[in-house]
Every structure is written in C-alpha cells, then in structure tokens.
Recover the amino acids of this structure.
C-alpha cells in the first residue's frame, strides 16, 4: 500500500472544494477550469486532477457488499481439517458467535458436539487466547457441567468438543411454557451445584442463560464454561473489537453491563434471572414472581429476589451459597405442574444419530417417571462408562458393574442378571474396543438378558478424586427411573466409593421394588444404604402391625445407619407419636422440620396430614387429597386419603368417611399380594374401627392377620389380630391418638 | 438461537451512546454485529445464487429485532445505523483478513469484494485495502468515512445517510463522490502510471 497522498501535498479543504465545483461542470470543461482555478498551485492541481481521473474511472463500491460465508463454509473447513478425528454431522444450532455441529468422534466411536467459533469471532479472540482460556474451563469436571472433551484450531477455525448428551436446551424447554416448581427446583439446584464447583475453582461462567443449559431427563447441565470469559486479544483484529464481550446483556448483572470487574456474584445474578425466567416462562426483571406463581414457596421466591439484587454485596456470595440456601427452602406442597410426556421435545433430534453412526450417547430424554410398583424383569448392571479421559482407569468401569451385581445378588430380594451374562450381552452388541452409549447399553442388556431395569453409570475425574454417577433406567421405555447422588472417592481408595455405590444402588432398587415407599422416595431423593433400608423395612412392617414401640426403635436404628434417608425419620416420628407421650417426639419433629427441604412432596403431605389433623380438619383433608394425587401413579391413591378421614371424621361425618372406607376396602381387595396390601388393609381396619363398626373391624383385622403372615418380615409374629387394633367403638379417652396431640 | 436482548435494553444503550458513553457503544457493537451476521447468513441461504446482498434489508431487520418499532429519538436511530454500518464493515474485513492469513484452499469460500469492475479477478485482499484506506480517509475527513460505511456497507440510501449524519442529501452526494475518488486513488495509485498487476 502506498502512503497517503490525498492530503499530502495540498490542503484538503481546497482540494475538496475544487473537486466538487469541477464536478458541477460538464465533463469536457473540468480540466481547463481546474487548471485555472488552481492558479499555479502545482500540488493542488495534481490532487484535483487525480481525483477527477479516479472519479471517471471508478466503479468503485458501486456493486453491493458481498455476503459473509455461511455455516456450510465452516462445516467444510472442519470436515476437511478434522477428517481423521471427527466425522462432522448435522448443524444443531447457530448463534451470532458460533455454529454447533453434531459429530462422531472416530477414535471412540461416540457422538459428540462440536462448537465452532465464527471466523470473525476467532480473529478477535486470537487462537492462543482461546486455547489457553478453554484450558482453564477444561479443568472443570462436574456431573452438571458438560465436560470439555477437546479443543483446537482447525486451520483457523477455533472449536471445542463436548459430549453429546441429547436433551434440549432450557431455552427449547421454555418454549413449551414455564417449569413446574419441582422441575424448576431440580434444574436450579443442578445449576447452583455446577456454579458452586466452578466458583470453588475460581472460575466465573459469566454467560449463564437458558441457551447454555441442557436439560436431560429433568436434570440440567451447564455448558460453555470459560468461553464467555474470553475477551479479544489486544492489537489483533481491529479497533472495534476492543471491549467486545461474548455475553448476553439480557442476563448480565449491572456491574458486568457496566464493564466493571465481575466475580461469582455476576453468576449468582444470572442464576436468579434464569430462575425467574424458568418460573415465569419469560425473561422479565420487573414482573412479580410471587403474584404470577403463587405456587412457588415464598422462601424460594425470596432466594431468587436476593440473587437478583442490583447491589452486588446484597447477593449470595457464590454458587455454594445459593445451593445451601436452595436446599433450605421448603419443598413445594402445591400440586406439581407436571409436564405431559408427549410434549417432550428434543431440540437436538435423535434422528441425527443415524447420520453419525449407530451409537448415540444417551437417549434418556424423557422426564423421570414415577417409580414402578413392580420390577418387570431382572435387574442388569452394565459396565460403567469411563469419562475420565484416562484409559488406565477403564478397569473401574467393570469393577463397579461386577461389584454392584454381586451386592444385589446377596440381598436375595432382587432378581439380578449374573455379571458374566451381562458382559456377554454387552460384548455381543459391539465388536469390542468401542464405547457403547448409554442407550445402546440399555438396549443391549434388555435384548440380551431380558432385563427390566438397567443400572448404568459413568465416572468422571474431579480433581484427584473420581466421581461415580449412577442411573436406574427402565429397559423397555428407556426412561430414567432415578439418578443416584454422585459418590466421590480418591483414586487410591476406590473401594470405599464402590462400597457406598453398591449400598446406594441396592438401597435404591430395594426401595423401588417396595410400593409401600412409592412417592416417598422420589427420583431425586437420595436412596438409603441397603443396611439402612433393611432396618427401615423392618420398622415399617412393625408399624403396619401396629407395634409402634418396636417400629420406633427399628426406624431410629435405620435413621442412625443412614442419616440421609429421611423416610426413616418421618416414620420413626409417626410411630413414636402413636406410642409415646407427644413431648418425647418433639426432638424428632424438630429434626424433620430442619430437613423439610429434602422431603418429597408426598412425605411432606403425609407429614402435614398427621401434624394438622388434630387441629384443623380442613387442612388435614386437603393435605390428604394432595397425598392421594401424588400417590396416584403408584396405585396408592386410595390408602393415603383414608388415613386422616377416620381420624378427623367425628360421628356426624360418618357418611363421607364411610365412602373412604369402602374405597380403602376396594384398594385392599384389588391388591392381593403379600405385604403390599397390608398397608391398605390395616388402614381399612383402622378406619373401620374408628368410624364405629365393630363387626367390620373384626373382619378387617382378621384379614390383616392373614395377609400379614404372607409378608416375610411379619412371619416372625403369630398370625392373628394385631394386639393394638381395638374393635370397640368407644376408645378410652386416654389413648394417644395418631397425632398424639389431641388426646388430652 | 440468536440472543436477542429486549428492545428496551438496546434503546437504553443507544441513549447512553448518544450521551457520549463509549462503554455503551462497545456493548452495542457485538450485539449488532451478531445480529447482522446471522441475518446475513439467512439471507445467503434464501438466495443461494449470487451475492445480491440486501445490506439495507439486513440492517433494517436487525434494527427492528434489536430496537423494535416504537418511537425512539432520531439521534439514537442514527447511532444505531452508524454502529450497524461499522459492524457490516467489520464482518467483511474480518473475513477477508482470515482468508488472507489462511489461503488454505478449499475451506471457507471467498467473499470477493467486487471492487473494480474492470478487474473481476480482484483479490479479496482488496477488502483489507479498502479498510486501510478508509482509516486513512477518516484522518482526512471522518464524515467521508462514515458516508462510505453507511452507503456501501449498510446499504443506506442518500436520504437516510443525510438524516443519519444531519446534513443535506446534496452534501451526501458530494461526499460520496469525493470519498470514492479519494479511495480509488488511494487503493490503485498505479493506475495513474501503468498497470502493475497486484497478483
């Protein structure tokens, strides 16, 4: 390029004036006029002549500005440069800054997602900066952070690779309307957990928004960590780029929007806005959340309000603070706005999988269903996926599968596919050397072993620790029945993790097979260890035999064995209320209140049923109806509401109570096997007794005795009418009522 | 999947920009850039053949998306158009710069700037030459630089440019003639002498 000439030799104002006036003349007269107007100023004359010549010749800029290249160009470049490592598939989405492709990682034959920055963005950022910043993000390994598998510079196209987990973005999910309270709570909890982990590692996300959140099986994964932190390299890519921030102003905290230094509290702010959007169905900084969503517990509303304070100092400090606050909020007792399964829609369609190969990573895009009454086929355990990126750790995957299988066999209560048979089914599905996606694993085990439930999982590196995650999947539908809380352990003492993992899986499966617990243990509730469950189960059996004292002690033992399994505590309190002076239960009641956030909706509702029925009949009835609604999926609709009926039903309410009793009877009759009907029958008997029909009570009691004897746990006791059912209509006034409060 | 912030937010930024808040402009730029970039691609897909870029349509579409159709002060609109024009320029220049740095063959398709009809094979480097020349032009007269951006990159009409810059249409016409001739001399000085093929 030549040095500037235009203003070099002559005064630009004069040049411009002469040039303009010359242009006003007919073309033929310009040259002569300029010559005279320049009045011997040689430089001036040259300049103006030059411009006039250029004007005559120039078609410059007359054509339209050209279009920038489309995503196809990016794809071509990626395809060409990465041919030996990735097969690029369909475009999953695109934004102003990046294009997202589905791809197959050839080495591991697995579906991945490649996000390629648009070239202009890449120019701004500079490859070195991009690769080093993304390196920081790559250190993050967390169950709710979409891991970074790979990143690089494909001949100028900067890209990074994430696992393909299916699902849809929260943005896509919100197109179907706002989230139910429980659904939102899970997503918000997952995100708070992810942020807590990042903040502990001194990483601020800076661009938390629904587009960056994937929702899979009701759980949330945060993606694009660290990318938002990138700022353009100075001196590269042009002046306008300075100050560019890949971020989304709509979710920015005031301090971030003002360009001030941001910390974890900017993420807290974005989390709050995202929470509002998830519950309102739209992004609004002004709308009143509590007015539009009266079903959201007030303490949750308050937490969200605090997170979105303009004043940085008034917000919770970081992800860990939100997480703690969130877990302390009350679990909703309102009817959950359940999502219709048929409307579940995938933004990243699975049909694409065919394009990239036969193996999809995860098909579990349906929301978690209710736990099943019965396990239709045996349980098969699969090899756990090694997501650590370290192939020397692959053994743990088999070890976990083998170990859990053994444990399940030892219970003697759960039908398990023997480990060699499971392995054979898995090996038969692929030639070997390939990593099967979770969906293929489930299908292979179902087809090869007839499994009804599949236990599958993966392990990740979290610093020096390994984190194991387990999912229970209904083999026929591919639905996730539940995800167990992750178990962490140092690499050198992995046996402890295995032990706990096995205990948890056994507990979860045992719980799942036990319909007495239906609804008490939601998919997101931490399952008990097997030992705790065994004690719990014994306690419940005793409770159902109305042996409240023994039940209390067994349930408290269960609680001591695993203090994360709240149903032990709830039932211990109920048992104690039935057998001891109310004052003695006060400490248990306080303990439950302190953990109320972790109770499932039905536990809460049951709990409130027994708590309120002494004082407020209407509240008790409405709690009972809610319990019935919540229990419906598990076929327990009838038994729950009958509990408060007889207790609240004084004589004048008899006709309504009678209806419930008949319903309980039908329920009991319709569920004839073993211990499963014992609860209902007991309930029926109790109802009948308190409603004043001695003859029916006696009949029901006999049935309880008969059925009770079919239950293994109860067979130790002699069959016959349990001692504490009294068939007299006149209860002694001193007898403690079920609530223990009303008696005196 | 484009992130479109609420129109009110952009309007607020524009008002701040009008008040001389450079941070607001810096924040606006990537938004406008992203929006235009996306719009340009959709346009390309609709019209697979030929590079008949309707820059005007793109800019106006971006305006509606980002600012909305409600009344906002004319000065704020002018700010928006100025930023949009600059963003369009950046889009093309960045692309050309990458392409020059790469020269990888295949891969990204060239976006040739049809700078000289007499030389249809003009290299894409000319976009960069134009960019450099525009920088030098702004030292001579920044208004001329803005006229070029608004007309060539944002595709605005002379009337719209006049409104945006607060000058008469006649002035815009004159500015355009001056800028174009000046740029041509700047970019093709060899034409004054004998051709010196850049390729």
């Amino acid at each position: 390029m030549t040095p500037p000439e235009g203003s070099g030799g002559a005064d630009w104002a004069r040049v411009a004036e002469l040039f303009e006036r010359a242009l006003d003349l007919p073309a033929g007269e310009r040259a002569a006029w300029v010559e005279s107007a320049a009045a011997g100023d040689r430089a001036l004359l040259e300049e103006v002549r030059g411009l006039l010549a250029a004007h005559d010749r120039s078609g410059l800029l007359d054509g339209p500005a050209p279009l920038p290249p489309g995503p196809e160009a990016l794809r071509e470049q990626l395809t060409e440069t990465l041919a030996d490592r990735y097969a690029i598939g369909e475009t999953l989405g695109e934004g102003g800054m990046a294009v997202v492709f589905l791809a197959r990682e050839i080495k591991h034959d697995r579906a991945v997602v490649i996000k390629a920055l648009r070239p202009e963005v890449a120019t701004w950022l500079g490859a070195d900066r991009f690769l080093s910043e993304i390196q920081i993000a790559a250190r993050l390994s967390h169950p709710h952070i979409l891991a970074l598998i790979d990143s690089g510079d494909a001949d100028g196209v900067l890209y990074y690779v994430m696992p393909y987990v299916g699902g849809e973005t929260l943005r896509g999910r919100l197109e179907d309307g706002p989230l139910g309270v429980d659904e939102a709570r899970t997503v918000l909890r997952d995100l708070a957990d992810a942020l807590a982990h990042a903040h502990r590692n001194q990483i601020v996300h800076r661009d938390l928004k629904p587009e960056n959140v994937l929702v899979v099986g009701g759980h949330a994964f945060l993606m694009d960590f660290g990318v938002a932190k990138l700022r353009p390299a100075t001196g590269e890519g042009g002046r306008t780029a300075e100050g560019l921030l890949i971020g989304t102003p709509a979710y920015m905290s005031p301090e971030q929007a003002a360009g001030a230094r941001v910390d974890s509290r900017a993420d807290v702010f974005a989390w709050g806005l995202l929470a509002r959007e998830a519950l309102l169905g739209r992004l609004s900084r002004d709308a009143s959340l509590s007015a539009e969503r009266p079903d959201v517990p007030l303490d949750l509303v308050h937490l969200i309000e605090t997170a979105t304070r303009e004043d940085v100092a008034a917000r919770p400090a970081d992800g860990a603070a939100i997480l703690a606050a969130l877990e302390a909020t009350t679990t909703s007792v309102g009817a959950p706005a359940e999502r219709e399964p048929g409307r579940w829609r995938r933004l990243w369609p699975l049909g694409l999988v065919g394009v990239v190969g036969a193996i999809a990573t995860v098909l579990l895009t349906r929301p978690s269903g209710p736990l099943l009454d019965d396990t239709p086929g045996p349980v098969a355990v699969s090899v756990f996926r090694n997501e650590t990126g370290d192939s020397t750790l692959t053994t743990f995957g088999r070890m976990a599968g083998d170990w859990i299988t053994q444990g399940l066999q030892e219970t003697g209560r759960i039908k398990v596919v023997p480990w060699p048979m499971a392995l054979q089914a898995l090996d038969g599905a692929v030639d070997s050397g390939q990593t099967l996606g979770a969906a293929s694993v489930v299908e292979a085990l179902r087809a090869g072993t007839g499994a009804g439930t599949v236990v599958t999982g993966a392990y990740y590196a979290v610093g020096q620790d390994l984190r194991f995650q387990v999912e229970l999947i209904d083999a026929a539908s591919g639905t996730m029945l539940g995800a167990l809380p992750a178990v962490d352990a140092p690499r050198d003492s992995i046996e402890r993790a295995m032990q706990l993992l096995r205990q948890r899986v056994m507990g979860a499966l045992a719980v799942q097979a036990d319909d007495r617990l239906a609804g008490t243990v939601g998919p997101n509730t931490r399952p008990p260890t097997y030992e705790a469950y065994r004690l719990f189960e014994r306690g419940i059996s005793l409770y159902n035999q109305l042996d409240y004292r023994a039940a209390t002690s067994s349930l408290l033992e269960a609680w001591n064995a695993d203090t994360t399994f709240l149903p032990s505590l709830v039932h211990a309190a109920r048992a104690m209320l039935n057998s001891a002076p109310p004052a003695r239960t006060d400490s248990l009641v306080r303990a439950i209140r302190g953990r109320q956030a972790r109770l499932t909706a039905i536990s809460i509702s049951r709990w409130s049923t027994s708590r309120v029925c002494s004082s407020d009949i209407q509240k008790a009835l409405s709690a009972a109806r809610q319990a019935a609604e919540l229990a419906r999926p598990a076929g327990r609709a009838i038994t729950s509401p009958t509990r408060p009926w007889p207790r609240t039903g004084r004589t004048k309410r008899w006709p309504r109570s009678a209806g419930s009793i008949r319903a309980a009877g039908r329920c009991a009759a319709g569920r004839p096997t073993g211990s499963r009907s014992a609860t209902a029958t007991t309930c029926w008997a109790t109802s009948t007794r308190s409603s004043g029909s001695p003859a029916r009570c006696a009949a029901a009691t006999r049935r309880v005795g008969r059925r009770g004897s079919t239950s293994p746990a109860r067979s130790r006791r002699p069959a016959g009418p349990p001692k504490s059912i009294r068939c007299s209509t006149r209860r002694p006034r001193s007898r403690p009522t079920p609530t223990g409060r009303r008696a005196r | 999947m484009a992130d479109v912030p609420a129109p009110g937010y952009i309007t607020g930024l524009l008002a701040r920009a009008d008040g001389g808040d450079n941070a607001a402009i810096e924040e606006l730029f990537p938004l406008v850039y992203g929006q235009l970039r996306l719009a340009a691609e959709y346009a390309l897909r609709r019209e697979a053949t030929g590079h008949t870029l309707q820059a005007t349509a793109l800019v106006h579409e971006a305006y509606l998306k980002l600012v909305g159709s409600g009344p906002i002060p004319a000065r704020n609109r002018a700010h928006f158009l100025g930023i949009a024009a600059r963003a369009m320029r950046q889009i093309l220049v960045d692309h050309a710069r990458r392409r020059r740095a790469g020269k990888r063959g295949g891969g990204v398709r060239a976006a040739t700037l049809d700078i000289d009809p007499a030389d249809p094979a003009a290299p894409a480097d000319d976009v960069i030459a134009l960019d450099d020349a525009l920088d030098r032009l702004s030292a001579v007269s920044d208004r001329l630089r803005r006229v070029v951006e608004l007309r060539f990159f944002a595709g605005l009409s002379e009337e719209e440019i006049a409104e945006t810059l607060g000058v008469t249409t006649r002035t815009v016409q004159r500015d355009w003639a001056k800028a174009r001739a000046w740029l041509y001399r700047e970019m093709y000085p060899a034409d004054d002498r004998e051709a010196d093929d850049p390729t």
Remarks:
- Residues 55 and 553 of chain A are 100 Å apart (CA to CA).
